[in-house]
């Protein structure tokens, strides 16, 4: 069930309603005179007749009608002829495939056809012709052109239904519409391929449709792109057939359709090898390997204004809105139709401008370097080549102060780059040459779009990825094609629309019965539907999010997907990265715990001068820093901090520590897989060579000589980690010149550990307060790449783990898979049993390996709600953690600060990036404040936006219910409220009060301990809606009964309804007591439901603080009071209410009685909301619901 389906049912129901209303429209009127007593003896007033004689048939011989019928018939004939041709030419084109155990995908192939193009234009012409005909009927009615004869309304009803059904069929086709005018063909010859991939989701299965375009290439083009002829090598296997180019989500891929093979590229030792893989083309297209001929230009079709307009208008809601505007226009309610049209066009302009502006920004990001050139190294010399024509395997030179043209692997020289634009890393990063082109460690890779600050003259790199396969291209794809997110609010809104549609149809049928077949029955029934289902409903639900987005921007939180704001209000699990998120980005040097003669010193020392000379030299040399031309040192933040505290000085590759001078002769860069780095230095006085190694204590200890390692090394390191220190071990080994020619593994062996260097990662100032504010309603967990023990310490310090709470750590023995998990007390390392783990009063922490072991064993679901810290989590592990929480039914947020968090930020329901780098664009939210206080602001405004959405929904639904009751009573009395009343209600009141509701501010106090409901069909929303409707209907009945008992002045319907010749002149049916009193009560009840919708609750500020709403409502109430209490005046006569000229002025006592009834109505509704909806009644219902849930759970447990 989705919104499109709901609108389809609504529009089809409106069309079918004609069967119940059209027949009485052509019969003689017989309006009933309904009074509790005998009819009044007052003489009848002038009748509301608009025709002078019997209606004539539609003039079918007018040239305009003949031309319209002819053109429309030709269009339908062309479409039908193409349908026959398509049927005869079609073949079995679909193919169902599966990929990696996921659900089957179906692919359909199509080819363009000239006759299909003609039929497409015929369909567009027929659609436009139907709208022109409705417009012509309206002009004929107002200008009395008599083109369609005297019975314009009958012709309008027929054309309205034809147009409605036509557009429902056209728009319901959606993206499939264009394919309906193509010829199905086999996938080998297809020019367009459609892929339908069912995707399981919490709310059901959605069909995700991807558009794929294919271009054919000839033999010459193949040579140009380098598939058959490769610059740096010869293919090991030449692909058979002629590959074709496929573009999907920015990615250009080459596929051999005959052999069903894909072409892959391997880069080895600076040469390129092309090989064919047995990889069917009909696998999941997002999994195809990138081809060597992929263009390096990140190009995608620009979004033009016309395309943006079509994309926005191509929805069934606009069909509903358009046809209701036509009904209002011909029903002499053209002023409201014009006002609504202006609002729709204005909203459309703003949406189109926003879409085009966003597209322009993404395009500027994508094409930032596409027009530049770079130098490619070839056997014939250096050749300048446009960046867009780079191919994987090209060897390029890297110049200083340039932009990296693609994702590269550095092969020669050293380079310093600024990656802040892409990764958020604030400091320049030093890159080292790789041993071969297959070595793709981070320290060897240059990312497309980053800036080169300094480069050696001999620096060369090989192109590893181009275009959308680069890191920048992947980010752009995630921006352009974000993952779909389902929300219970949106899912239930479709059901609510169907319910309201059904009730609108019932109201329309009741109107038909009450009017007893008078003229205009069909129009009155259509207006009843618009009363129940306001055309403004979807727009008002978006306005609250737009207001919240602007307010978040004032809090330095940028939003790229407004639909996620309401989701932020329902976050139940918040995952936080540690470094740079909860703590400061940089580490601060704390102390060094030195080791001498296999023993630790008594205590760590923060005075470097007190350290042994070899350990101090290790601090000054075990790094990968380099000096820029201006003398600045660049490199890893830990290296910079450690070198600064060592007191050493660096001049090029020479390091001076006190009286000792050494030269760094070789650097073995840090690698994530090894978790260490090493340097080889030469003593300039003695010529002796030494290796210094720095890395994680576990990795360094594994390489150390056991005879030289302290026996308590592991326990001391864990103790420091529990204290919140980031620990690195440093080790030493003398080497010879012969060792330099050996492998890295040969150099890094038999080490002697010199000590443990400790850093602290201070919390950011607002972290503790933010966690304390979130904790009552949101489970906060830490997902960090650091050790679990360090994460536990930080979690205790920031309050994520309550003070004094016991923490158990889950770790693994043995290599995965099949690792055995054991639990220890994080405070002392002592083993614990399963009873301790099952204790509800303990917190749990797990390592990455334990996390995956629990997944393999199927035990994660039971433990997940109790795990507070996830340690040593890689980027893909963070995504798996978020997916696990989502599978458990939680609304998950992720807060991170770097590019390594981008995948998790995108996977979460609500992702907040604490940076403004390009990588942050994949997150729905980003901030440059750098603190998680921005997340608290996001949650606060998200809750307010969700509560505002619910308030706007309740107001518009209750507003519609008030109007439908008023309309049914009007039909009962054969009266209609004056046009001025309807204009005030439909324009000034509904739009004004709805817009004012959205200006409610978030609650200024601490976050509430509960989250707002998102259920439109939940107990809270239903109780508020149904209870208010019941109270209002009851008071309407009281007013009617009171009116019938006013015998001293009340004249029940001053004219006999049976004398009415034509109720289409509805504006003449307002000058009576019934219409006036109905208008007064309707005005009052609309104000009442708006006032209760503005009640703040725990998520929005108090109603009195919504100054815009208070001013608007105050002006509205003042106007209503002047009409009711003031007697005959300009306002009352404008609305034909309580006016002597309208024959419905009431005595003072009657006006006061009516005023008192309305005040009692307001008091009853407010009391109901304070006692039942928001007060003790709500808590009682919650307790009953929880008790029922516990009973069901226990019953299920017993049965299991």
From TrEMBL:
Keywords: ATP-binding, Magnesium, Membrane, Metal-binding, Mitochondrion, Nucleotide-binding, Signal, Translocase, Transmembrane, Transmembrane helix
Topology relative to the membrane: Multi-pass membrane protein
Domain P-type ATPase A stretches: 376-478
Source domain of life: Eukaryota
Coiled coil (residue ranges): none
Localization in the cell: Membrane
GO molecular-function terms, A-Z: ATP binding; ATP hydrolysis activity; ATPase-coupled monoatomic cation transmembrane transporter activity; metal ion binding; P-type transmembrane transporter activity
Entry's transmembrane regions: 64-84, 118-143, 155-178, 313-334, 340-356, 493-515, 521-548, 956-975, 981-1000, 1021-1044, 1075-1096, 1108-1132, 1152-1173
Cellular component terms (Gene Ontology): membrane
Signal peptide: 1-22
Record-stated family: Belongs to the cation transport ATPase (P-type) (TC 3.A.3) family. Type V subfamily.
PANTHER family listed in its UniProt record: CATION-TRANSPORTING ATPASE-RELATED (PTHR45630), CATION-TRANSPORTING P-TYPE ATPASE N-TERMINAL DOMAIN-CONTAINING PROTEIN (PTHR45630:SF11)
Protein name: P-type ATPase A domain-containing protein
Species of origin: Plasmodiophora brassicae
